[in-house]
User: Fold these one by one.
Assistant:
Number 1:
Amino acid sequence: MKIYSISVVLAPPTGASVVLATASDLSSFSFYQRGSAGEFMTFMSKTVTDRTPQGQRQTVQEQSHVAHVYNRGGAEQLAALKAVIITDEEYPVRPAFSLLTKILDDFTAKVPQSSFNNPSAISFPEINTYIQKYQDPRQADTIMRVQQELDETKIVLHKTIESVLQRGEKLDNLVERSTALSMQSKMFYKTAKKQNACCVVM
């Protein structure tokens, strides 16, 4: 069980989402793949959070990576605060969403909303502690015991990222058109997809 990335994202009513705080643990990737893997985690985080409606939680799987997203929402005219955690397939859903709730609670308590306009000035070192401490999902389960139950928002599970993309969109096309990914990251994505596809036995 592994957490690769945790991010707090601000989604304004218009325009692109902005990552306010992020932490990653890419130690399971080779040294030469870490840069590309990090770019792809950021790309996946923004893509999935942009497509998660206000007040909802959802899980999206892309190959061996799973993104758990919580869109806390906000007033219609205000930007929505979202949190996303990218894990491997083995990391349990319940602790992932408990951790996202805790991260958003701590973030809103410690970071003033007035600083959201300048993400580079935001200091939220706790996110680095979370990614280390909660590699063991039992740590997040203690949050569950205290919290008692998830709030009434619905958890929407999706099996693939394609089901989250708008009608007619393909992840391959988004990756190809993205200016946020370097050529090396795009090649990393294509190579990983080919390696996973070659092992299908009929």
Number 2:
Amino acid sequence: MKEAKETVIGFWNGWVVEPIVGILNTVRGSPDDSPMVVSKEGLHSDMDSLERMVISLASEKLNYTAEQLEDLSIAVRQGDLTPVLRIYEQDIKSPLSSVVRGSLVRSLLIQIQKTKVDVDLALTGIDRLLQSQQLTFAFVGVAPSLAILYVFGGWFRSTLLGVSGKGRFGGLGRRESTLIAMRRIERLLNNPGAGMSSQPFRIPETPGSDSDAESPRMTPPPLTQGLLLLSVTHLRSYAMECLPARSNLQQAFLEDVEDLEDPSGKLRREDQLRVIDRMWRNYGRLLGWDGDAIGYETGS
């Protein structure tokens, strides 16, 4: 029991709370606050060092004026090292003397510094890409934990809260609306023409039928049929949403609802009234249709 408790606490803290706190910090914070592979200060320092190295070499070997050095500085910022490469091309023609004079070594060092700056720029691009997708990664990390909590919450609600407490079987409001739907169905079946000025249509008796043993079958008016359909649909929706999923209670309730729907058309009005009576007997006290659980006494 202790290990199970520690497992639940560890899951809650490590896989739910901490990722959500990280998401909130990401939303509240700025991109500059997040850790980066290469800092902006380091990139600027490497770029300034490269610029100084190129300007020093150009002023000594090429005798550039102040205006030319300013243009060269802008070109270095844009990644153009053409003057240095020209000096390097001249030095490799006589590498030994260039090594002695020192210009070849300086050209190589400048190119190494340029490679370092290029690597820093590439890493900065990766940093920006990671920052733009940081929220996406955070939500992807917490999604499995939230899915597990959602499934467990649904099971807990349907298994435990669905059979006890004030919120059982959809709560007071849903159970009361189902009670009203049941009463409406029974009233319409007892008086198909209730509220209608037109009389129900009588289906002629089939040859050989026993008119004394059975009452003639009647088709209720269209409005009555529509009200019956709405009420039965309400019962089916209640069973699917509020009764414990895949339970015997839900299956039995849906079977009775299907009898009320009567898709085959074989059940007579008297048979459907017996189905209603069966539902009152079987589910009345369980679903709180007996009056006390709903909050008032129902009339007979």
